[in-house]
């Protein structure tokens, strides 16, 4: 171990270090980090809210799965970590080794290695920079194979290698800028320093041994990833702003008629009788018979998702139900329900259950929980639960996910939805994050950084300036964990560009055919904390943000609009073009020049990918279609496959099967059960 | 008065309002705002520092001059102002009337009317936005003729008409975005809300009756504007980074030889034996005989200004002197002196006196006191005085100005310098602010916003992409309060573009000729708190940021590089071209198409401008040259003129004269003494 990592400065006031306790296998916390449930059902109104993200999310560690990762140690001594109160803040200092790379620090839209930067992690609708993020998860994962999670609902400032202390014996020597060519404007401090206001800071350090293992421990500590219903892995389409039931039904029919996959239809503000602020009640004008509408869609294999901007129109029924459990300030003149108050949370769940879920609604898109300044409430806003505006803003999206998740669990049907703001400890919630930014490079970068924030990212398509862009956007979303066309504003359809229609359909059908593979990748998120998208940083320490692994065996390298070719860095080993099956390289960087209807998608040698014949509604038939195993390279092949009933919570009680499949050169399939009580298929 | 301004919401917890006291004529404070001197000379090490900017700046109100403004009332009832503690913050709410415009909120580089915006006022080297400013003075001036100053050294968040409270009876009615074309995405709240962390917030409300009067009260409350030495109004040039004494002397000689004005030569980092971090000692290599160098320059009418980045090289003599009065973190590996500790401040003054001022040095350029994140210390840094990094960053530039001002006062010679970071209550310090941004539009906008932040702005020239740009840049700086060519990086000289040389010289000589007028404008800043640059917002409520009044009678409308023409809005009355004396318009918007060597500069009808024959060194002869009165329009003319000895502090003891001059059509001059004990000249 490099000396500098083992011997950070240790000024006098730091010598009383924190007491560390292994709070879960391979997870150490400085405050005997338990699972504070003060934001839980048991909280009483006006009780002082808990300060941790795990408490806000009501997440419990998956100890059974954590145990499977085995015992592990850290590459540095926890005694070198200092936590102290200075002035009005709590400060933690952690060592950095020379050459160590730091990944994560939220759903970043740019870059990968965070060393040399300063991050003020706040929930916001991303505009630019590295501070105000849709999900500012205060988690970092080190290239040395460990992770650090600052378990706080306050905005935290993180200095990664920045800020040399005067009394640090290892501080670099000063040089004269006038004359010394080796003068450095930003000498690395060999430390991470992070601080929050107040006197509470829980720090959780997760062991590896690999960076991926460390992230798995984080996700499992926070409850593991969500297991989506089968339909959630189909294609999503959002209807125009004020479409009527009839118009939406027309869109559904058009998908069917043209042979394009569709599993989810999203209704935007106009489904409500009034919006911004919203009533959260159906518009009697545009949706006179919502029950019939939802049922009709579902019969055709299409699930209904409702947009909500969760601020309540004064005078509406929901307002009366929730009054007075609102924050001091309005948002778009709507009242802000305080979901940290049990009574309010219960009424929110009951209202949604009665008015929507009982009618068959399958999920929500919770918009605008990530605003700032002009859009949400100020830091000094007050809430009945005792939370202030600053902290409520950090967890408002988390609280909505928590309550909607709970409601669907109570209903017995899985959900999957969208949310625009989240934070740490929210891994377990069945929501994907989206954005109003629309830069394709940022969207793909977000795909690679979301896993490091413990969230799922939806690189949705919205519109395009050309048919070529439309194809590349739709290809990007089809290889995203959640594939959505969000056309509420532009009204764009998959077939809006005649010359692009076949290429778009090809991408959508490719996604449909990959259903068993994607479903398995999500199951691994739930079971092992391995996210469906795996950034290169976790695969082999790479810093690329324009390519990623999707599941265990597929490498995705999206084409960016306007480009005719691109470079792809192949990880170690031989790789094959997914569509042609041809060898493309062996642990090298290649240049590909795909035709417009081709996506650079590669499989590793020995992979055996479970696929199905494309279906228009994976929710209806994705789990019933016979598996077609696609194999790459020579020799024996192995793959994995997960199955369950596709919609209930039976899997949580063991009603599922995760199998390893081996296909011998002789053509014989062998199944081995890895988890679950469903018996393996025979072949 | 509009009803909404008189009857803001008043929730129950607000009914115990603050107790207001008139702490100076027309100035009301909520905490019987005295002049807390806990950051003063009397502070003891480790005492808890004061929280107010007036205490940090050790500013005392100029009660004598405030009295002259007469009694005044506010256009709203102070009982409608609420101040309360909510959670961890102190919050103030103030009324806004319909149509009311709000100006100020720091040295903003963009825009004018702040209504509808949110401002997180922090010291930083401006990059973009409205939050991180070189001088985030928490002061606003209303178009209704009053000002509000949040007297706090903490970063304050200010919501101007943003954030409707749920329990505000005057909250606008909600509308349905789905169907209502009058739906508004940002309904105005009719309130200013501001909040800071902690339980202290001093609010000072200044009466008008005009907006300018309100700003005057602010400036006078903070000690009035600085009276520069005469030389400071000449031309400033900064030498290249590592120029030697001989090379700098060569530059001075070149100005003289070519007939270009020069009063100040600025030395950049290379004057020190080591920089970034600095020793603050002369380089024996580049400046072997600093005393002779400084004396030689001064003999030629050129004053020496020293650049300092105020972070001390470990091991240097100054470091040893100051140890251990440093902050916890280094900046460029230099130690950060805690100037809130008396002992450190005293030693800093003594060191500068001995090593520089005793040799004849006339001032400083204090760089990099406005960094953030990667450049300065973190919020959680600690300082021996008890200040934390957050608060120290807000006032570090103020503390340096305070101590250097004090040192020069002790020496008996006035100074004028540059500083890159300042804050509120710093009006009285003889420093101008500059920036590393270099957009000409931003620079001119800053000229118009600096007065609203109680600071002087230097729209310096650095370099240009073309001769045309060079001329426009140099014209801009020549009509700035401080005119500087900052060529440390580019090495550009006024004559670097042969085809532009005459136009540049014309602008520089124009400035020289305006010396008596500019000196008088500064005297009015000192005496009455009226800044030398007067933004249109204070002249007649205009929101233009591309034109301004310089002194009482001249309207400056800089030409922007690349433009062939521009519009100029003439305030009420007739206006004349300064150079040709021709009538250009009467309270209308005109379009001007100036030749490259012309600056759009206009005088109001009846103005009588004191000028001199251009001199190359106004410090040497500006106060001795005979006055040439330039008059505009018909009828009688009036002007003002200030005089003193140009360099000492005698003016503070009454050794000055401010005269009103009347020139009758018959050609007779009449002088009337307005202030000071110098007798008026006879004519």
Report on the architecture of this protein.
Two copies of one chain form a homodimer. With 683 residues, chain A is of the alpha+beta class. The first copy, chain A, is built from 15 helices and 33 strands. In chain A, the strands form seven sheets. Chain A has an eight-stranded parallel beta sheet. The first copy, chain A, has a six-stranded antiparallel beta sheet with strand order 1-2-12-9-8-5. In chain A, β18, α10 (440-449) and β19 (456-457) form a beta-alpha-beta unit. The longest helix of chain A has 23 residues, at 389-411. The N and C termini of chain A lie far apart (50 Å). At the A-B interface, β11 of A face β11 of B.
Task: Let me know the number of strands of chain A.
Answer: 33
CATH superfamily of the domain at 233-526 in chain A: Glycosidases
The assembly state of the depicted protein chains is homodimer
Gap between N and C termini of chain A, in Å?
50 Å
Q: Which second-level CATH architecture of the domain at 233-526 in chain A applies? A: Alpha-Beta Barrel
Shape of chain A: globular
How many helix segments of chain A? 15
Class derived from helix and strand content of chain A: alpha+beta
Radius of gyration of chain A over all CA atoms, rounded? 25 Å
Our estimate of the beta-strand percent of chain A is 15-25%
Instruction: Determine the mean pLDDT of chain A.
Output: 93
> In terms of per-residue confidence, which ranges of chain A show pLDDT below 50 for 5 or more consecutive residues?
1-16, 32-49
What share of residues of chain A is helical? 10-25%
And the CATH topology of the domain at 233-526 in chain A?
Answer: TIM Barrel
Strand order of the largest sheet of chain A: 19-18-17-16-15-14-13-20
- Quick one: biggest sheet of chain A? 8 strands, parallel
The biggest chain-chain interface is: A-B, 66 and 66 residues
User: Any idea of the CATH class of the domain at 233-526 in chain A?
Assistant: Alpha Beta
């Amino acid at each position: 171990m490099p000396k500098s990592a083992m011997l950070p400065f240790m000024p006098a006031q730091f010598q009383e270090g924190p007491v560390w306790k292994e709070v879960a296998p391979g997870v150490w916390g400085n405050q005997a980090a338990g699972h504070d449930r003060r934001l839980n059902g048991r909280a009483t109104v006006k009780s002082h809210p808990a300060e941790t993200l795990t408490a806000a999310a009501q997440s419990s560690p998956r100890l059974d799965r954590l145990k499977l990762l085995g015992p592990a140690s850290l590459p540095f001594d926890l005694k070198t970590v200092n936590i102290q109160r200075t002035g009005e803040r709590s400060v933690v200092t952690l060592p950095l080794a020379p050459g160590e790379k730091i990944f994560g620090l939220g759903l970043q839209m740019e870059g990968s290695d965070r060393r040399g930067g300063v991050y003020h992690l706040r929930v916001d609708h991303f505009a630019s920079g590295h501070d105000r993020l849709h999900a500012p998860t205060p988690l970092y994962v080190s290239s040395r194979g460990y992770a650090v999670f600052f378990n706080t609902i306050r905005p935290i400032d993180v200095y990664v290698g920045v800020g040399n202390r005067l009394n640090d014996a290892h501080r670099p020597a000063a040089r004269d800028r006038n004359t010394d060519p080796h003068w450095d404007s930003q000498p690395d401090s060999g430390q991470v320093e992070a601080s929050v206001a107040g006197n509470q800071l829980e720090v959780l350090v997760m062991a590896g041994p690999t960076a991926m293992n460390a992230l798995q421990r984080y996700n499992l500590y926070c409850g593991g990833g969500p297991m989506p219903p089968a339909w959630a892995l189909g294609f999503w389409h959002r209807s125009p702003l004020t479409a009527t039931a009839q118009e939406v039904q027309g869109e559904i029919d058009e998908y069917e008629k043209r042979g394009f996959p569709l599993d989810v239809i999203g209704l935007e503000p106009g489904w409500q009788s009034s919006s911004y602020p919203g009533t959260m009640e159906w518009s009697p004008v545009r949706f006179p018979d919502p029950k019939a509408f939802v049922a009709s869609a579902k019969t055709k294999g299409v699930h209904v998702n409702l947009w909500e901007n969760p601020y309540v129109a004064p005078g509406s029924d929901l307002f009366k139900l929730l009054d007075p459990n609102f924050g001091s300030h309005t948002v778009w003149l709507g009242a802000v329900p305080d979901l940290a108050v049990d009574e309010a949370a219960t009424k929110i769940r009951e209202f949604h259950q009665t008015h929507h879920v009982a009618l068959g609604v399958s999920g929500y898109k919770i918009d605008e929980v990530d605003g700032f300044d002009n859009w949400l409430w100020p830091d000094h806003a007050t809430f009945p639960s005792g939370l202030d505006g600053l902290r409520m803003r950090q967890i408002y999206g988390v609280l909505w996910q928590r309550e909607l998740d709970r409601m669907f669990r109570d209903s017995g049907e899985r959900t999957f939805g969208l949310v625009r703001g989240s934070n740490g400890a929210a891994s377990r919630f069945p929501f994907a994050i989206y954005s109003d930014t629309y830069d394709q490079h940022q969207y793909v970068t977000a795909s690679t950084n979301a896993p490091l924030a413990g969230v799922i990212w939806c690189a949705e398509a919205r519109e395009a300036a050309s048919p070529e862009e439309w194809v590349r956007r739709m290809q990007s979303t089809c290889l995203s964990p959640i594939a959505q066309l969000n056309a509420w504003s532009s009204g764009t359809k998959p077939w809006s560009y005649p010359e692009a229609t076949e290429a778009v359909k090809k991408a959508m059908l490719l996604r449909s055919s990959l259903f068993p593979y994607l479903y398995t990748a999500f199951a691994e998120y739930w079971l092992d904390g391995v996210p469906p998208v795996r950034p290169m940083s976790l695969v082999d320490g790479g810093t690329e943000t324009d390519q990623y692994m999707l599941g265990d065996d597929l490498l995705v390298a999206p084409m960016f609009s306007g480009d005719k070719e691109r470079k792809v860095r192949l990880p170690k080993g031989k790789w094959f073009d997914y569509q042609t099956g041809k060898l493309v390289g062996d642990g090298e960087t290649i240049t590909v020049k795909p035709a417009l209807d081709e996506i650079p998608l590669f499989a590793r040698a020995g992979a055996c990918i479970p696929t199905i014949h494309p279906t228009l509604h994976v929710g209806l038939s994705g789990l019933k279609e016979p598996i077609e195993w696609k194999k790459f390279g020579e020799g024996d092949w192995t793959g994995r496959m997960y199955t369950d009933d596709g919609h209930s919570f039976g899997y949580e009680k063991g009603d599922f099967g995760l199998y390893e499949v081996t296909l011998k050169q002789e053509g014989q399939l062998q199944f081995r059960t890895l988890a679950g009580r469903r018996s393996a298929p025979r072949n």
